[in-house]
Amino acid sequence: MKLNDRAETLLRTLVELYINEGQPVGSRTLARQLKLNLSPATVRNVMSDLEDLGLIHSPHTSAGRIPTQEGYRFFVDSLLRIKPLEQITLEEMQDKFSNESDPQLLLTKASELLSQVTHFAGVVLIPGQRSSLFRQIEFVRLASQRVLTILITDDGRVQNRVIPTDRSYAASELVEAANFFNQVYAGTSLADVRRGLLKEMQKDSDEMHRITATALAVAGKLFDDEDDGGDAVMLSGEENLLNVPDLCQIEKLQKLFDAFKTKQDLLDLLDRSMKVSGISIFIGGESGYRSLDDCSVVMAPYDHDGEIIGTVGVIGPTRMSYEEVIPVVDVTARLLSGALSTSSDRLE
Amino acid sequence: MKLNDRAETLLRTLVELYINEGQPVGSRTLARQLKLNLSPATVRNVMSDLEDLGLIHSPHTSAGRIPTQEGYRFFVDSLLRIKPLEQITLEEMQDKFSNESDPQLLLTKASELLSQVTHFAGVVLIPGQRSSLFRQIEFVRLASQRVLTILITDDGRVQNRVIPTDRSYAASELVEAANFFNQVYAGTSLADVRRGLLKEMQKDSDEMHRITATALAVAGKLFDDEDDGGDAVMLSGEENLLNVPDLCQIEKLQKLFDAFKTKQDLLDLLDRSMKVSGISIFIGGESGYRSLDDCSVVMAPYDHDGEIIGTVGVIGPTRMSYEEVIPVVDVTARLLSGALSTSSDRLE
DNA sequence: CTTGGCACTCGGATAAGCGGAGTGCTAATG
DNA sequence: CATTAGCACTCCGCTTATCCGAGTGCCAAG
């Protein structure tokens, strides 16, 4: 789509005004705001053209115009003037990430940060373990037939799980089994560990080494269940959305919170954005998920040592200040990537 | 407070009607519903008395009556006829708890259960570790100066934490240190462990055994921070409250969700109910926390081997069906207590 | 004590009227 | 030909008036 300069400034000003005020913008207001010394009548003519193009529309005959979904899209793609982050905000954000090396907590903090700074909801796609590499496993005997397994992956994440076993294992057996794992599988992907285990299991148990058998018995279940992806979504600041005037209708909020509970739609959406480099923006119904019809989502992938492993984002009303939210999401993704990398640099 | 039989049945019927319909109850409706063949005029007289006693009131002159906070209180204390749980619901609830022995997950499930069954918000007070006994600690070397500590308490809870250390420790040193801990402190309370550590630290480091020094250096920080209580509140099904007609005003929801975020009020409230045995019910403003003015909270403590360690509850509108919610909370507390005890029976 | 009757009150729904903001069209202008 | 002033028109939101129904309180009779 191509617009002449005047139409572009006009549309930009209109969208900016509407984002700030939340009221349909009329020709008089727009003419006054515009520095071009145009009469309201001229502005009306241009607005009429923009309406024909489907970029703006009137809620009713005698109201001003508001951007359509396509209008927002054009605005975001072609007209947006990104505001640089305020120095203070930037420092606050950096503070939040410093002195923290636990990857789990880093993700939590990222999500909180996004919601605090934007006053909308922050969201983080937590990568499943599919792609992470096996680093270390430990078994701790809890009771006669219960073993605590602690799985550590190369990205520094720790996961523990209590596993019921068929028979009782001595502490020494468990140590042997753990050593076996740590030597054989260190550095391979979890999926490969799983494949390896499956292969072992197919062997006749007679010819199996005692230690291998123990390892299999204890950790088999762990990897059985664990490989089903395990991607998860973390949300913060949902309550901020209650304060957003555009969403003040209970039904809209219900739809939204329903989506927050099931999380599937969010997961799909964030996952899609992981495939793309740079910021992804879904405006209103663009995402295709009805529950997000009244919302926009701004997302950016984050990486760990250069490999993209997840996404951070903000969910807010379609009428949000994209010029402010985009840099926040962008910077958060960068800071998070940085924090994750340095935290694992400190791993050896 | 003493009422004659007729006034009691009348009040009970009024409250039940109002809880079911949500509309102020007029004399005609009440007379019809009542099986006493009273005329509306008589009912009006009785209602007038009840109003003088502060148990009911009219929102305005020509509306019916609705219960006051005191009216609900009297109803709950003296008039309530608890409905036994439906067999199916009971089985569903039992199902939810069976096949789960991880205490953390049990608490999550309890909270979810409460919200699912009642269609309000479920809440669980998660006991801090102050009272739990030390069972076992493990150190895992993550990087040259980072050690993963895994703390297991006697109630089966597992907590892990990455601790930065001043110098690098060899795996063997860590094993020794862990053994030291596990032998010296097994079965003592975490608070005592902390006291023990402090005492050790006061000794001149020269005369300290090498292993003790390692143990101190690695785990000192863990117990430093960890003893600050750590009680926590877990919430589920907040979104259910969006569907409650009595709370459909955005401001009320805002107050409520604000309280959900900070959690302090909830924590205090649940903590109070832990001191009491049996069901606690706070109606409307009774709790004293303004954020819960429009809500009632039904709570019951749960225990682990007879010792009360936490509380489960439901947060809903004041106009809730107490006769249904109370047994749900009660049964959940019992089931949870049972599940926690059997899960630790299986510990040795 | 109970009841029927009756005047009274109040909220909610409906309709009417009004002012303001904004539009679209037309004709005049540079 | 783009721009502009003028003007009739539309529609929303607000206020006011009206009416109806539900419910009350009180009184006098049973």
Query: Please, what is the CATH homologous superfamily of the largest domain in chain A?
Result: GAF domain
Span between N and C termini of chain A?
52 Å
Number of domains of chain A: 3
Main sheet specs of chain A: 5 strands, antiparallel
**CATH class category name of the largest domain in chain A:** Alpha Beta
For the largest interface, the chains and their residue counts are:
A-B, 34 and 34 residues
Rg measurement of chain A, Å:
26 Å
Strand order of the largest sheet of chain A: 7-3-10-9-8
Mean of residue pLDDT values of chain A: 89
* Distinct helical segment count of chain A: 12
Oligomerization category of the chains in this entry: homodimer
